[in-house]
Amino acid sequence: QIQAFVFDLDGVITDTAKFHFIAWQKLAQRLGFDIDHEFNERLKGVGRMDSLNLILQHGGVILTDEQKDKEAAQKNDEYVELIADMSAADLLPGAREALESVRGAGLKTALASASKNAPAILARLGISDLFDTVVDANLVVNGKPDPEIFLKAAAQLGVSPNACIGVEDAVAGVQSIKNAGMYAIGIGDARVLTRADAVIDGLHQFDVNRFIVKD
Ligand code: G6P
Ligand code: MG
């Protein structure tokens, strides 16, 4: 019997990829190269330092750890400035309704996000109160596809992982859900999210009754 849903944030509830792209592009240009939208796809769901390492590799630039920390901090300052203007208008279609329908069905909700900015973004979107618990990158050691973040969300809810359904748009995220032993709903293309148990285009297609067993 399903007792909870664990949602990813970026690409599921809101689209922050465009803001990350602007800030990463500025960083790349500071270092003398460009990134494009195609490359940006590879950064979805990837944590801050891992993203920086991929970008540096892409540009053929080598930095010391100290320089990396400084560049990552500057990128984040710029990103934080970009997301300061976010509001409920930045919710993806059906996101609020999906969260409300899960809670309306008597189930719990959790957020499992690789972003350290996740709590601030939830506040800007006006949906903090729709989550029973939030796990962000500040609280975990291993990034997706490691199951740690989804397992921690289940633990914080006090629900067994196999009674949880995870919702993710990134390949590594779906892997993280499956590695945690949960049912996985993919958001996007079924040909890409091959490990997902079900795939929908977006939360506007989400129907809680399709996924929970009723007695
Ligand atoms: C999400 C995004 C990534 C981002 C990561 C870390 O997973 O999809 O693009 O790099 O969060 O975000 P942060 O806000 O902590 O830099
Ligand atoms: Mg995502």
TrEMBL record:
GO BP annotation list: carbohydrate metabolic process
Positions bearing the site annotation: Important for catalytic activity and assists the phosphoryl transfer reaction to Asp8 by balancing charge and orienting the reacting groups: S113, K144
Cofactor binding annotation: Binds 2 magnesium ions per subunit.
Annotated keywords: Magnesium, Metal-binding
Binding-site residues, substrate: 8-10, 24, 43-48, 51, 75, 113-117, 144
Cofactor field: Mg(2+)
Superkingdom assignment: Bacteria
MF term (GO), any: beta-phosphoglucomutase activity
Entry binding sites for Mg(2+): D8, D10, E168, D169
Active-site residues from the entry: D8 (proton donor/acceptor), D10 (proton donor/acceptor)
Family named by the database record: Belongs to the HAD-like hydrolase superfamily. CbbY/CbbZ/Gph/YieH family.
Name assigned to this protein: Beta-phosphoglucomutase
Native source species: Formosimonas limnophila
